[in-house]
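Exam revision sheet. Question 4 asks you to relate a sequence to its structure. Input first:
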Amino acid sequence: MLDEKGRLFGKINIVDLLVLVLVVAIAAVAAIRLMGKGGTLPGESGGKAKLTYTVQVNSVYPEIYDSIKEYIDQVDENGQKGDELMASGNLLRGYVTDVTSQPHDNAAIITSSTGALTIPLADDLLDLTFTVEVTVPDRVTNEVGTQEVRIGKTHTLKTAHFEFANGVITDCQWEGAE
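Answer key, structure tokens:
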């Protein structure tokens, strides 16, 4: 097997072969450690997830609430209730499935050393709470269109029929998706 020059099968030096085996073994160990427990590289997608989150939008005129309610209450030909989300001119895999309203408490309170004075600003405005159901492609980033869904973040709620740029995400539930 070894010739007079110390080459294995007359082709490769035994020391070179040992170095090559050692390099391959180190590369294999490094690859296994990088893959981690889930078998994905760091920074890779965590898989799909279904999110159900709520968005609070304050100080909305009652006429606007009445107009958008009909779109949210509709059911499409597939039996899906709600108005489909939209971003950058494209429909997304999500729907605004519910909206509730409550009167907005919008009063200016001025306090001084002699007492407090309450001045009502607009007494017919509503605070709306929207429920959104969406499947996101990556459960780690939770991106709906170009927006990340995180509790406490401001959120633009946009469908084919309405848009609110001043919402705040107040709750979010994560579920695994198919």
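Marking note for examiners. The first helix runs from residue 14 to 35.
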